[in-house]
Amino acid sequence: MITILSKQFSLVNSWINDLRNVDVQQDRMKFRRNMERIGEIAAFEISKTLEQKTVEITTPLEKITSQEIAVQPVITTILRAGVPMFQGLLNYFDKADCGFVAAYRKHDANDYFSIKQDYLTCPDLNGRPLIVADPMLATGASLIEAIKDLLNHGKPTEMHIVAAIASQQGVETIQNAYPNAKLWIAVIDEKLTSKGYITPGLGDAGDLSYGEKLQR
């Protein structure tokens, strides 16, 4: 299942426009906040699909029964570009547990890359919904590697993947690898460059959030 958050016009469209706009991108705080907002909207939509349980609430006047999330999710992201979107998800799923993956593209002299993954920490996933924030779903290679390692920590009841911008190729790659995963994507771009970058895309989400890095 795939849900395109910008399919019906809303503020998501405006936030994506600002994320792409080279003039607005100079404001790092706004860039991070817009990623965070997309995470918040995705969290709200995901929450509608989660299993519920009945709970008893005591108000100052009486006891009532109501509905609550049956099992709190585990929210994970790939450092560092995913942190703002991850924070947006965590703002809404504020009782969730969290996991982190350190993965990156290692570029050669011709700017082609392989995926390097150095670190992962995650709670037990057995019997819990898993939500993975990956703001730029390009080829899908780093996300597949991250999920593969995350699933060594248990079998989640369901898996949700949240992205701001995805390529059509990346979406198809993830759907083929994990056909039961639910994708929540703000917008899909049709093309990847020959070197695996989304176009028109928005550039490097990590650098735009936190500054340019030295690649080691």
From TrEMBL:
Keyword Metal-binding included in the entry's annotation: no
A Pfam family reported for this protein in Swiss-Prot or TrEMBL: UPRTase
Keyword Protein transport: no
An example Gene Ontology molecular-function term: glycosyltransferase activity
Keywords from the named record: Glycosyltransferase, Transferase
Positions of the Phosphoribosyltransferase domain: 11-211
Top-level division of the source organism's lineage: Bacteria
InterPro entries given in the database record: PRTase-like (IPR029057), PRTase_dom (IPR000836), PyrR_bifunctional (IPR050137)
Protein name per UniProt: Uracil phosphoribosyltransferase
Lineage, highest ranks first: Bacteria, Pseudomonadati, Bacteroidota, Flavobacteriia, Flavobacteriales
